[in-house]
Amino acid sequence: MGGHRIWVAAFLLKILSAPAHASIGMASRPGPKSHRSRIDEVNIMKSISLYTNNGSWLTKLHPFSKIFYLVAAIAVPLISGHLTVFLGVILLSILLLKSAGLVHRAFPLLAFSFTIILTVVIIQGIFNQKNMTILFSLGPIHFYKEGLLYAAHIGFNILNMLLSFAILVLTTSPSELVEELEKKGFSPKFGYIINSVFQIIPQMTGTMNTISDAQRSRGMETEGSLLTRAKAFLPLISPVVMSALTSTRERAIALEVRGFGGSAKKTYLYSHPYSKADHVLKALSILAVVVTLVLRVTHVL
């Protein structure tokens, strides 16, 4: 009789612990909710990197070809020193992103830079030591031509670098880039640093959003006036920093377990051969840098 009671209690416990939507005979099967949870986990893992694999021609290029473009896009305007060259390269990068259907992903990356550029324009336009020619005035405040031109060089340089890096970051898988670097003889530690740079912003953003939601669920005000957000800053940033330190330690242990520091020669499952477009992009990038250097040395620019 006692054994019968134990069996009945175990049966009732099984029913109570089963999902509400599951029947008795199908309690072990995953329902729609668990399936959606797995999809959400996959999407979260994909969002760890800014890389977007939309099948465009830019994503199919070799990572080194895009690095050649990155170097040329930054070097050519700096060597020339002309605002028109800066503007031309910026428009070229926007057109490349537009052709790959990724221009909408690049603009959020540029959003934070506009505050910096506006600050530079105000400070340099008013207080630059070379200011002589008044361009316009806002009441008693005068903005000078020399300072605004200097600020324009800085602003265009920031936008150019961000857009050039956006082409590499948005269209290149971090793991593929690290793998190609290691094939060329770079240290795995260097590849790990590059991979971390690609992933740190999405990881920190995700952690910040998670902690912010957790703090709001506890009744903390994280939105509203500037004073309210300032009060919530320390309770939000402290867990983010601690989480980053904890994840760094866990990642170091995981890498050590997987033989990260091993001296044995690695083999690779995939290869990414150069296409005709890769050779064209590399040749044009090198040619652009060489021509700009020659024109600069000969004082044509």
Strand order of the largest sheet: 1-2
| Helix percent band | over 70%
Terminus-to-terminus distance: 100 Å
Radius of gyration: 27 Å
Poorly predicted tracts of residues:
1-48
Q: β content, as a range?
A: under 5%
How many individual helices? Answer: 11
Biggest β-sheet description: 2 strands, antiparallel
Description:
The chain starts with a helix and ends with a helix. The protein folds into two domains: 57-172 and 274-301, no CATH class; 173-270, no CATH class. The chain has helices at 2-17, 32-46, 57-60, 63-80, 83-99, 103-127, 145-171, 174-183, 188-217, 226-257, 276-297, and strands spanning 134-138, 141-144. It has 301 residues and is mainly α. Helix 4 (63-80) runs antiparallel to helix 7 and helix 4 (63-80) runs parallel beside helix 11 (276-297). The chain is built from eleven helices and two strands. The chain is flat, with a radius of gyration of 27 Å. Helix content is 72%, strand content 3%. The longest helix is centred in the last third of the chain and has 32 residues, at 226-257. Strands 1-2 form a two-stranded antiparallel sheet.
Keywords:
single chain, 301 residues, mainly alpha, 2 domains, two-stranded antiparallel sheet, 11 helices, disordered N terminus
Write the layout of secondary structure elements.
Blueprint lengths: L1 H16 L14 H15 L10 H4 L2 H18 L2 H17 L3 H25 L6 E5 L2 E4 H27 L2 H10 L4 H30 L8 H32 L18 H22 L4
Antiparallel strand pairs: 1-2
In short:
By secondary structure, this protein is mostly helical.
